[in-house]
Amino acid sequence: MKKALVFFCVVGLLAGCSNDDEGNESISNLELLAGKVSKVWNVTSETPVDEECPVDSPRNLDNSWTFFNDGSFLYDHGTVTEDESECGDLVNLTGTWEFTSNETKLKVIALYETGNPANEFDDVLFEVDLVELTENQFKLSEIDQDTQIKYVITFNTK
């Protein structure tokens, strides 16, 4: 009985002890953007607002960007590919992504149309400033070199 009591006391003491660093572990940018395996994002706002093709148009609301932990990505244009506006919609894309400039920029490259590797692109879609990155939101920013207008796009998890 004494051994059992000592055992439970020791287990209780060990369970009560905590590592001072526990809870202070920071999540890497890789995991914030792509999760442990993948993470799905939607564009939720933009400034300035694109009057012709606003992010809250039906065409844009069902688009998603999936970033995978291995550096690949999928863009899914969803089921609404046309609406009453003059907006076009990208084809579904497969490509790669990477952080550049000490993880202050995000570079996304479209390699080919998803499901149709023969339709190759190998185009940089964007390489822009990563303004904010949290578990549920990230913001990208770029200054148009011609107009000097700063564009900010906000993504939220789906």
Descriptive report:
The chain has one domain (27-157): Domain of unknown function DUF4822 (Lipocalin, Beta Barrel), CATH 2.40.128.540. By secondary structure, it is of the alpha+beta class. It has 3 helices and 8 strands. An 8-stranded antiparallel beta barrel has the order 1-2-3-4-5-6-7-8. It is 16% helix and 44% strand. Mean pLDDT is 84; it is low at 1-21.
Number of strands: 8
Strand portion? 35-45%
CATH topology: Lipocalin
Domain unit count: 1
Instruction: Name the structural class.
Output: alpha+beta
Helical amount = 10-25%
- The helix tally amounts to 3
Q: Identify the strand order in the major beta sheet.
A: 1-2-3-4-5-6-7-8
Which CATH class applies here? Mainly Beta
CATH architecture annotation: Beta Barrel
Unreliable stretches (pLDDT < 50, length at least 5) are 1-21
Q: Major beta sheet, specifics?
A: 8 strands, antiparallel, barrel
What Rg do the Cα atoms give?
A: 22 Å
List the secondary-structure elements in sequence, H or E. Answer: HHEHEEEEEEE
CATH superfamily: Domain of unknown function DUF4822
Concise description?
The chain has 158 residues and is an alpha+beta fold. It has helices spanning 2-16, 29-34, 58-61; strands at 38-47, 64-68, 72-76, 93-100, 105-113, 116-133, 137-143, 150-157.
Features:
158 residues; alpha+beta; Lipocalin; 3 helices; 8 strands; 44% strand; globular; disordered N terminus
SSE layout and pairing:
Elements: H1 2-16, H2 29-34, E1 38-47, H3 58-61, E2 64-68, E3 72-76, E4 93-100, E5 105-113, E6 116-133, E7 137-143, E8 150-157
Antiparallel strand pairs: 1-2, 1-8, 2-3, 3-4, 4-5, 5-6, 6-7, 7-8
